[in-house]
């Protein structure tokens, strides 16, 4: 519950509590706080039990932590009934992407597309979009843009 509170912070909280409430009222205050926390825990446990009873026997092993999406996904990935590990091991995304990239680059360099303008100079058929067109020069016609 207090995983992120160090010993120095805990001592500081105790000293502040003694200064604010006084040493004579502090034990009574601690008892009241622990009693309240205990009642809240009992209430939440009884609510969980009521929900489990209402869901029926098919959900007897239902855990409320499973409602967290991260926990649910982790639990499903650990449970290998669907064969997800085989699918994951058989699919290499980097290899597939490299093959697609090579295929696209080889097609671009081998055969110019019919919609591309004729190759001009060293740009390899590409239009330099940073260069402003000459006033008499028409911009290239793009079939995909229309």
UniProtKB/TrEMBL annotation:
The protein's job, in short, is:
Part of the twin-arginine translocation (Tat) system that transports large folded proteins containing a characteristic twin-arginine motif in their signal peptide across membranes. Together with TatC, TatB is part of a receptor directly interacting with Tat signal peptides. TatB may form an oligomeric binding site that transiently accommodates folded Tat precursor proteins before their translocation.
Q: Which family does it belong to?
A: Belongs to the TatB family.
Source taxon at top rank: Bacteria
Where does this chain mainly localize? membrane
Q: How does it assemble?
A: The Tat system comprises two distinct complexes: a TatABC complex, containing multiple copies of TatA, TatB and TatC subunits, and a separate TatA complex, containing only TatA subunits. Substrates initially bind to the TatABC complex, which probably triggers association of the separate TatA complex to form the active translocon.
Highest classification ranks of the organism: Bacteria, Bacillati, Actinomycetota, Actinomycetes, Kitasatosporales
Q: Which UniProt keywords apply?
A: Cell membrane, Membrane, Protein transport, Translocation, Transmembrane, Transmembrane helix, Transport
- Give one GO term, molecular function aspect: protein transmembrane transporter activity
Q: Name one Pfam family in it.
A: TatA_B_E
* Keyword Transport applies: yes
UniProt topology in membrane: Single-pass membrane protein
User: Where is it localised?
Assistant: Cell membrane; Membrane
By its UniProt entry, which HAMAP family does this protein fall under? Answer: TatB
The encoding gene is tatB
One GO process term, biological-process aspect = protein transport by the Tat complex
| InterPro entries attached to this UniProt entry | TatA/B/E (IPR003369), TatB (IPR018448)
The segment annotated Disordered runs over: 99-146
Q: Kindly list the GO CC terms recorded for this protein.
A: TAT protein transport complex
Comp. bias regions, Basic and acidic residues = 99-110, 128-146
**Protein name stated in the entry:** Sec-independent protein translocase protein TatB
Q: Which organism is it from?
A: Streptomyces doudnae
Q: Give the Gene3D superfamilies listed for this entry.
A: 1.20.5.3310
């Amino acid at each position: 519950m207090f995983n992120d509170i160090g010993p120095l912070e805990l001592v500081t909280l105790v000293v502040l509590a003694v200064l604010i409430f006084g040493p004579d009222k502090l034990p009574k205050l601690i008892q009241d706080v622990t009693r309240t926390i205990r009642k809240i825990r009992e209430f939440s446990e009884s609510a969980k039990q009521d929900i489990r009873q209402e869901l029926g026997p098919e959900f007897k092993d239902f855990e409320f932590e499973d409602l967290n999406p991260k926990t649910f996904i982790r639990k499903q990935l650990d449970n290998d009934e669907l064969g997800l590990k085989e699918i994951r091991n058989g699919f290499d995304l980097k290899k597939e992407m490299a093959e697609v990239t090579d295929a696209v680059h080889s097609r671009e360099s081998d055969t110019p597309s019919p919609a591309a303008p004729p190759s001009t100079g060293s740009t390899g058929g590409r239009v330099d979009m940073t260069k402003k067109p000459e006033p008499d020069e028409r911009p290239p016609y793009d079939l995909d843009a229309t």
